[in-house]
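Cross-posted from the bioinformatics board.
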Amino acid sequence: MTDVTFETREIGSLAKPPWRVKAFAGRPIEEDDVAEAERWGRTLELDDRDELVETLRRGELGKEDLRLIDDWSSRYGLALLERAGLDVVYDGEQRRTEMYDHVIRHARGFEQRGTVRSFDNKYYSKAACVEEPSIDGPYDVDEYRFLAARTDRRLKVPFTGPYTLVDWSYDEHYGRHGALGATAEQRADARRRFLLDVAERVVRPNAAAVVEAGCDWIQIDEPALTTRPDEVPLGVEAFNKSVEGIPAARQSLHVCFSDYSLLFPHVLDLDDCFELQLEFANRDSHELGTDGAGRPGYEPLFLFAEHEDAPSVGLGVLDIHTNFVEPAELVRDRIVYAAELLGPERISVNPDCGLRTRSWDVAYEKLANMVEGTRLAEEALNRAHAGSR
Amino acid sequence: MQAFAPGIHPRSEALVQATRDLDRGRTTAEAVDEQFARDLDDLVRVQQEAGLDLLADGMLRWQDLFRPLLEATEVLEPGPLTRFLDTNSFYRAPTATSGEPRLREPLDERYVAPLPGPRIVTLPSPYALAHGTGLPAKVVATEVLKPQLDALEADLVVLSEPFLAREGAGELGELRTALEALAGGPPLALQVTFGDARELLEHGLGELPVEGIGVDFYATHATDVPQGFGKLLLAGVVDARGSALEEPQEIAEFVSRLHDRGVERIALVPNGDLQYVSASIAREKLARLGAARTARPKESAA
C-alpha cells in the first residue's frame, strides 16, 4: 500500500487588503495601510514590493496606478496561500468584486435593480435578467494567466455556478409573460430555460477559455444549490451544461451551508465531477477525537459512505465564520475520522468556504494549521497502516 | 374591490445607506430616525397617490417579521440566523426558553406607526411565531398576539403566514385553535405568503375563523380557489419577489377569472413582503396595484 497523502487547497475568496479597498473606493490611503502592505510584503517575501509602496504613498491614483495595485493585491493573495503551504492555490479572488456581481457586470442581458435586504442592516444588490444572457468574451482568462506566470503550484479557478446566478437574480425575460396564475409546469419551464442559458452562454464560454489558456481545474461554486430542494436535479443539469465539452482534467462542485441530504442521489448524475467541496467544520465540535460522537459536523459523510460512486469529498476543516483558529490536532482528527469512514483516497482537505470574512492574520493562521494538521493526519494514518501490515 | 399592501416594505436607498452608516459608526441614531420618518412619509404619500384603500406603515423598522415581538416578549427570543423560505434573505428564527411567554407591553409607535387614515397592521400568524419554538400556537396567540391586538386600532390586521404552505394541511387544526383565541379584536385576515396554497385550500383554509384569506397567485393557480369562496380574498397579484412590473390590465384579467369562480369580495395585495424588491420598484408596484382596482380586462376594454 502506498503512503497516504492528502491534497490541500483553498476554496475561493480572501479578504481584500485595506490598501486595495481604499484605493478602488477613492478613499485616502493612510500610513497604517502602507505599513500593512509592508508587513505582509515582508512576511510573504515579496521583495520587489517597493513599487507598490511608492504607489500607495503617491496620493493621487490614476488608472495605471489602480491596475498596478490590482496586480499586487493578486500577488499578495497568491503568496499568502503559497506561504501557508497549500498544494493548490489561486489569489483569493482579489480582482473580483464579489462572486455574484463579478459575473453580472461582465455578462450581457442583466440590469441592476437596486438594493435588497439580506438581514437586519445588511443589504445586497440584485440584478434582473432582461434578455437572453451572454458574454462578449471570457473575462477570467487574464486573471488566470497572471497567476499561472507567477506560481509553480497547481491552480484551481472558481466560477460562480449557473444555479446561484439565476437564484440570486430576478427574471424579467423567461417567466415574464403569464407569470400571474401560471401553472407549476409553466414556472418550472421558464426557470429551466433561464438556468440552462446561463450555464451555456455565460458560465461555459468563460470557463472553457480559462481551460484553453492552460487551467486544468475548474470549480463551480453553487452556494444556492439546495435553496429550492425540488430544483436540485435542475442544478445538476446546469452543472453538466456548464462543463460540457470542456477538457479540464478536474471539474469540481462547491456547496456550503446547506442540507447535504438534498444533494443525494442527484449528485450521482454529475458528469465528470471528481469532487464535492463541502462545509463541515461550521457544524462540528472543537473537541479532539476521531469517533462519530466527537465529530457531529461530519455526519453528512455517511451519505458518501452509502454512495460509493459519489464524487470524492473536499473536506471542509476550517470554520470560516469564526476567528477561532483550529489547532492542527483538531484538523488532524477531522481528517482521520473522514478517512477512516470513506477511505483516504476519497478525501482532500480545504476550508469550509472562502475566508473573505476573516482578517489575513486569522486566515493565514487557519490555513497554516490546516496544512500542519493534514501532515499530522497523514502520519497518523500511515503509522496505523504500517502497524497493521 | 379593495387594494392595500401589508407586510414589510423596502427601505429607500437613503435609509439603506443611513443604517449601514450607523452600523459602521459613521452617523448618529438621530439622523437615522429622521431618515426613517422621511421614508414613512414617502411611503404614505405613494399609497395615497395610488388610491390604496388601507394604509400600511411598511414596518420599516422591523428587522424581520418576528423580531420586535420576540424582543418584547418574555421567554421568546431571536434565535439563529435562518434563511427565509427559498429567498436569499435571512431572519432570526424565534426560540423559546422555559416557561410561559408573556408580552411585556404592546409594541410602541416605532413599530406600529400612526397613519393619517384607515389602516392595516401586519403581524406574524400565531403558527409562524410559534414555529420552531416548541410552544403551541394557541399559547403564543393567547399570551403574545392577543394582548398586542387588543392594543391596536386597525381596520384590518393581516396575520402573515409564510410557513404553512410548506408544512402542509395537517397543521391547519393547530392554526384554527390559535386563531379562535384571537377573536374579539380588530378584523383579521390570514395571508399565506410566497407559497402554493392549493393543498391548504383543499383542506379548509377558507373555513378558518378570520375575515379574509390571502393567497399567492404566483404560486397558486386560480382554479385552486374553491368555487363560491365566501370570505374576503386577499389576492396576491403583485409579485413581491419579482422586479417585473405588473400591468394593471393583466391583473384585471386575472381578477375576472376569480370572479368567474364566484369569488365576490377581493382585495388586491402583493403576494408577500415587498421588501424583496428595491424601494423604487416597490413604489411602482404600489402605483400599479392601485391602478388595477379600476382597470378593466382587455376583452372588455373599449
